[in-house]
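Note to self: user wants both folds in one dump. Writing first protein now.
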Amino acid sequence: MHAQTDCTIVGASFAGLSCATSLARAGLNVAVVEKKADPGEKLHTTGIIVKDAIDQIALLDSLPGHLFRRVGGVRLYAPNLRHIDLVAPGYYFLATDTPNLMRWLAAQAEGAGAKVVCRAPFRSAERIQGGFDLGELGTTRYLIGADGPNSRVARSLGLGTNSRFLFGVEHEYAGLQIAEDDKLHCFIDRRVAPGYIAWVIPGVGITQVGLARRIRPRQPTPESALSALLEKIAPVFDFRDQQPTAVRAGMIPCGGLVRPVAGKRILLVGDAAGMVSPLTAGGIHTALKHGLAAGHAVADFLAGRRDDPSGWFVDCYPRFRAKRLLRLAFDLFQSDLFFNILLKSRPMRWAAGIVYFNHKGVFDPTAATPLSETSLVSSPSGAEPPG
C-alpha cells in the first residue's frame, strides 16, 4: 500500500472504525490499516454494549438484529454464591456476536468511502511537512492511533502508553443454553478474580464464561485461573465437562487516560488512549462515541475550519476521576467477607448502580435468595442444548 491519504487510522477497532466512518462521510480520503487478516479475528473484548451507547450513537441505529441479543439485568454473586438481582426500568445490555459486529462496522466504514486494509501492520512514522511518512503504508496528513492497549503508534511517536492493566480470559461455548439467560451473571471472588470480577454471559449462539484479574507476579496462568473459576461456579453453572469452541484473552488498560494522548497532527483513541473505565473495564461506548467525535474534529481541521484537535479536542476525553478512586479502593480493600456480609446493603446497591447502570440501577429485593433456594440449573451439567 503506497498511498496518500487525508487521514490514516491504525487499528480496525471500535474507535478506529467509527472514526473512519465519520471522516469518510465528511468526504475525506481515509484509510484504516490493520495488522490482522480480518477485523473480527483474535478479539480481546467480551462485546457487551450498554443502552447508553444505543441511545447516543446513531451509527448503531441500523445494527442488524442477528448480531445481538438483549439482556435485561444483572445477577451479582457474592463469594459464598448468594446473589442479588439488579435491574433498572427500561435499561438493558446488548450481548453481541462480536466478530461479526466488527465486520459490520468495517463494512459501514467502507460503505461511507473509507478503505480498510488488512494484513497491513504499522511499523513506524516519520514526520514530514504537512503530515507523516508511514513507509510502505504511504503518507498521510493526519494520523490516528486506535491500535489497542499496547499502541505501537504511541511508542513510535513518543505519546503516552498504558502502564496499568487487568488481564482477561474468556471461553466461548457454542450451542449451550443456560437458565436465567436474561441476565448478566457476575461473580465476585478475591481468589479467582482479584481486582475485578468473573462472569457468565448468554451471548449470541454462545455462552461466554470469563474473568479479569489484576496482574501479579507468579500469578496462575490464564487457563488455570479459568479452571479455578469453573470449579467455583459449578454449583450454579457446571461447564467443567464442556469443551470451549473459542478463547478470547488480552490485556485491559485500567489506569485511565494516557499522557500525552495527542501531538501535532496525531490523536490516540480507544484503548490506545486508555479510554477504558478503570472500574468496569468497559470501553466500547467511549470508543465509539469519541472515535466518531475525533473523526468530525479532524475533518474540520483538515478542511481549515478549526485548529488541530490535538490542542483542544482531547479536553473532552473522559478522565474517570471517581472511577479511578473506586478502582483504588477496590484494589486495596477487596474482601470476600465484606461482600458476603454486605451484598444486600445500601452501599452495595449504590456501588452497583454506578458500576452497572450509571446510577440508574435499582435493587430487586425479592431476588436476594440463598443459593439453595434458587433454581438456576436446568440439568446436571448446568447447561443444555437450545430447544
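First done. Writing the second protein, which came from a different request thread.
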Amino acid sequence: MKLPAQLNIAMLRTAYREGSLIPAQLVEQIDARISTEDSHNVWIRRLTRSEMLAYARKLEGRDPVSLPLYGIPFAIKDNIDLAGVPTTAACPDYAYTPDKSAAVVQKLLDAGAIPMGKTNLDQFATGLVGARSPYGAGRNAFDPDFISGGSSAGSAVAVALGMASFSLGTDTAGSGRVPAAFNNLVGHKPTCGLLSTTGVVPACRSLDCVSIFALNAADAANVLDEVQSYDPEDPYSRHAMPGADLLGNSFKFGVPRNDQLEFFGNPDTPELFRSAVQRMQALGGQPVTIDFAPFLETARLLYEGPWVAERYAAIREFIETKPKALFPVTRQIISGATKFSAADTYAALYRLKALQRRNEGVWDGIDVLLTPTAGTIYTLAEVEAEPVKCNSNLGYYTNFMNLLDLSATAVPAGFQSNGLPFGVTLCAPAFSDGMLLELGARVQRSLQS
C-alpha cells in the first residue's frame, strides 16, 4: 500500500487490519518521505531508518487490534524525553541524553506507536512563532514564507506534511494551539495535570501541560485516552475527574464583544470567525456575548508579571553560567525575570486569584467559549522585524488558559484568501476535555460538509 499524503489513524488501522500494510512498510515509506531536505526545519533529531525499524519489528507477530496505537507514527517535541535520543529544548549546549522516556512517550510506545523523531521548537518553549531556534525557523506547511507557529513548531508541521499521524507538543501560553491553527490541525491543550510532565523540560512548571496535534479531533481523542493518567512522580499530576457532559443539540457558547475581538489588521480573519460562529449556531449553539476583559487581564499576567520567573528558575544554573548559549530573544525574555521581587510575585498571585473568581461567573451562562485561536499570522520577515510585538499579538486569545485552569481544543475553521489556514478555539473549565473534543469533531464535520 502506498501511503497517502496525510496519515489519519483510522485509515492506518484499517490498512493494518486488512493486511495491506505492515509497520515496517510504513517506516520505509515515511523514511523516504522525510529523508529529503528539511526545508521547513521540522526536525532537530529525526530517527534513522534502522532506529524506526527497531520499533516496528517489536510489533511483528502481534495482532493489529491488540494494541490501541499499533504502528501509528508520531513525532515528539524536543523538550520531551525519548530514551537514548538527546533532548535539546532547541539549545545545543543544554542537551542531555535521557535513560528513559517521558511518561507520556512511554505510554505511547506501550500502546504500539512508532516514534519518528524529535521536532524543532522555540528555544526552551519560549515563544508562539516557531522562529526562535538555532536549528532554523519553523516554516508553515502551506507557505514557507510564513511562520509555523510555536513553540511546538516542528510537531505541528510534521503532522501537516504527512510525516506523522499525531505529535506531542507542550502548551504553557498557546504552544499547542497556535501551530495547529497555522497548519490546519486540531491542537488539544488538556486540563493541566491530566497528562504527566515527568520527563518534560519545564517552561513554567506550575502551568505546563503536554499537548496533542492531530489531523482530526477523533485522532486527538484516541491519543488522549492512551496517555492520560495520574503520575505520582509528577507533583502537578491530577486524578481525572468527571467533566462537562457532551453537548446536545442545544447549548450556549460565549463570544467576546465585538470591540474586544482583535484581528491585527488581517482583512480575512474577521469574516472567517463570523462564519465559525454561524456554524456553531447551525450545530444548535446559542451565542452569548461575554465581557472578555478579565480574560485579557489574566493573559497579560503571564509575560508582564512574575510568571516569567518560572522560566528563569527552570534553567537558572544554565542561563547564569552560559547566557550566550541562548537565542538572543529568548535570553532577553527569560532574563527579564530578575526584575521581579517576591513581593511582586505575591501581588500577582493575589490578582490572579481575584481574576479567577471573577471569571468563574462567566461559566454560569455558557457551556463553552469560542474565540479565534490567533487573530492573524505573520511572515518570517515580519517576525524578524518585530519579534516581541508579533509574538505578543499571537497570545491575545491563548495566554490566559492555563492561569485560569481551562482545557481547550483548537480546530480548523477555513482558509484565508492567501491560502493559509485559520482556526478557532473551544475552551471550557478543567476536565472538559471529552466534551471539547467531541464538539471539535462536530465543528470539523460541519466545515467539511
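Dump finished. Worth passing along: The CA atoms of residues 126 and 151 lie 6 Å apart.
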